[in-house]
């Protein structure tokens, strides 16, 4: 019975082990599901929305081919659709019953799109020649865009691959149980062998054999029996085989995929959604204009353009990333430096770090983003504050204002970058001073000094712009002119739009432009005005009996507190320089 029990234990044990092992090999389910489609549409754009990408759980592997160049990008669904506009495109779907992708052509009025490579709209992008493979794990409201170059038909071979849950949580217990039963069987087998040897001895005394006389000179040799050796080898093999099998199965059984969750096994992974902000019931929050990684790439591109344009004094190149007051100041600086290379270049735009970031919360255009950047390798250079604007979905972000911050500036608290801020109307009455009035009121202080009625609204204790270019500076400049010339200064609003974004205390960060028009005329008949410095360089005039008019552009960044509070308006940063000079008509 002991041998029978051992054999039964062996049979069951090997059956359990074999079945557990088979679950991970020959009986294992596929680890992925792949669905594909080949399109014959001439559309230049293909879109795959998050509903299709999330047809099955897990990360999505996308394979694209069928054109000489393959470009893919992903972004917020509304942003991608705004970029596509009224262009005909392919919409990829998934049919669960056939486990295949489908294609629907959405007709539009246009057939071509700009080359999307380098657009500021994408949260991520990929490109390669002929074929492209990448993996994403998109949350809801994200769409993947696929094109060739915007003119040729989009790549026509597309496949999506999702991971499948092919875990075998009972293969581990089966193999472990089989190993345990195998050890029990080995124990039963050894017990049966020992018992059998003890019970097979002689039951009666064996008669003695007669003695055989020994022959002289003959050495009797004892025969060597191989029986004991064979039995020993068999015993070793019986023990070694289970030990090797146990070791192998124990190593393979360490994987958490082989065990149920209540025994410490792995659970099925699910997609991780991107951080979102919960909106009050019944209210939809607008998303921020950009994400932090997206903004870092945008600033890096702006920095590259600024560095090259500053090096070559190229206003056309600068215009690809600058506009308004920021472009006017740089263009004038380039024109001056082409004639006089001793004039220093404007402050650079760092690309290595993005600090405070306040994007506008919006899903429409134009969009505004305020950010502060600084070179961490050179702390002596003041941080630069940028006010960026994107006019349409297909436009790049451009710098409208670029100012250097005041030393040890204390910024007000603002919303988190993943929430964004609301724009403030230029004529808002909810602030201590309407944003549209800031430039001229501040200019009045420049002109009149402490006699200006607006000094009570501004904190001028650490204002470097007032101390450098205020009333005292204007008086000193006028006094330095010859007695035959007279100078007048007129303040005016710049042509750049006023931009204001709300802060957490219901105040606002405001970027505005003040233009100082300086006119110098002869005050005696026959006298002439002889321009000097940058006015002479930019205007090309060495002397004039009519006089000259020069315009200085002042980019000003303010913090304006809420109306009714005791706080004062503070200048956060500025950039100022000559933007035009010419002879009076």
UniProtKB/TrEMBL annotation:
Pfam families, alphabetized: DUF8094
Transcription regulation recorded as keyword: no
Source organism, top-level taxon: Bacteria
Region of interest (Disordered), ranges: 200-226, 266-288
Positions of the DUF8094 domain: 288-582
Bias type Low complexity, positions: 269-281
TM helices/strands, residue ranges: 174-194, 237-259
The keyword Ligase is assigned to this record: no
Composition-biased stretches (Basic residues): 200-222
Keyword entries, A-Z: Membrane, Transmembrane, Transmembrane helix
Name used for this protein in its record: DUF8094 domain-containing protein
Organism whose genome encodes this protein: Lacisediminihabitans changchengi
Organism placement in taxonomy: Bacteria, Bacillati, Actinomycetota, Actinomycetes, Micrococcales
């Amino acid at each position: 019975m002991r041998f029978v029990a051992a054999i039964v234990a062996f049979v069951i044990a090997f059956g359990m082990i074999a079945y557990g092992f088979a679950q991970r090999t020959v009986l294992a389910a596929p680890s992925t599901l792949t669905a594909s489609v080949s399109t014959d549409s001439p559309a230049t754009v293909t879109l795959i929305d998050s509903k299709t990408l999330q047809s099955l759980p897990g990360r999505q592997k996308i394979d694209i081919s069928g054109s000489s160049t393959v470009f893919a990008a992903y972004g917020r669904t509304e942003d991608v659709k705004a970029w596509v506009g009224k262009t005909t495109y392919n919409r990829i779907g998934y049919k669960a019953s056939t486990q295949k992708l489908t294609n629907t052509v959405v007709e539009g009025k246009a057939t071509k799109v700009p080359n999307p490579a380098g657009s500021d709209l994408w949260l991520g992008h990929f490109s390669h020649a002929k074929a492209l493979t990448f993996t994403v794990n998109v949350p809801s409201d994200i769409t993947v865009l696929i094109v060739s170059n915007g003119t040729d038909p989009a790549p026509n071979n597309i496949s999506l691959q999702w991971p499948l849950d092919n875990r075998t949580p009972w293969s581990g217990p089966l193999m472990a149980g089989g190993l345990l039963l195998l050890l029990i069987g080995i124990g039963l087998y050894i017990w049966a062998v020992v018992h059998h040897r003890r019970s097979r001895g002689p039951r009666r005394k064996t008669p003695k054999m007669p003695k055989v006389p020994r022959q002289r000179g003959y050495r009797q040799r004892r025969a060597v029996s191989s029986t004991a050796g064979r039995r020993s080898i068999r015993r070793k093999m019986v023990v070694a085989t289970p030990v090797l099998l146990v070791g192998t199965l124990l190593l393979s059984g360490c994987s958490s995929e082989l065990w149920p969750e209540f025994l410490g096994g792995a659970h099925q992974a699910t997609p991780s959604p991107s951080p979102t902000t919960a909106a009050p019931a019944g209210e939809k929050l607008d998303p921020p204009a950009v994400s932090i990684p997206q903004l870092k790439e945008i600033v890096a591109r702006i920095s590259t353009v600024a560095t090259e344009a500053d090096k070559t004094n190229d206003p056309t190149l600068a215009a690809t990333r600058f506009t308004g007051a920021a472009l006017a100041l740089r263009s004038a600086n380039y024109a001056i430096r082409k004639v006089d290379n001793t004039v220093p270049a404007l402050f650079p735009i760092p690309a290595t770090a993005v600090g405070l970031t306040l994007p506008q919360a919006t899903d429409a255009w134009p969009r505004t983003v305020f950010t502060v950047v600084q070179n961490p390798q050179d702390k002596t250079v003041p941080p630069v504050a940028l006010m960026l604007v994107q006019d349409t979905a297909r436009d790049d972000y451009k710098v409208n204002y670029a100012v250097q911050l005041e030393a040890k500036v204390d910024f007000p608290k603002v919303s988190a970058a993943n929430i964004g801020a609301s724009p403030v109307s230029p004529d808002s009455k909810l602030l201590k001073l309407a944003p549209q009035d800031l430039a001229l009121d501040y200019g009045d202080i420049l002109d009149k000094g402490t006699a200006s009625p607006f000094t009570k609204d501004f904190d001028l204790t650490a204002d470097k712009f007032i101390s450098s270019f205020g009333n005292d500076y204007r008086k000193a400049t006028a006094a330095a002119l010859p007695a035959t010339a007279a100078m007048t200064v007129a303040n005016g609003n710049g042509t750049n739009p006023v931009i204001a974004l709300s802060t957490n205390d219901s105040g606002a960060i405001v970027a505005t432009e003040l233009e100082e028009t300086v006119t110098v005329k002869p005050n005696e008949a026959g006298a002439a005005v002889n321009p000097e410095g940058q006015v002479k360089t930019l205007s090309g005039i060495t002397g004039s009996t009519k006089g000259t008019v020069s315009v200085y552009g002042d980019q000003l960044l303010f913090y304006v507190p809420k109306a009714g509070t005791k706080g004062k308006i503070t200048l956060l940063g500025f950039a100022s320089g000559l933007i035009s000079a010419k002879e009076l008509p």
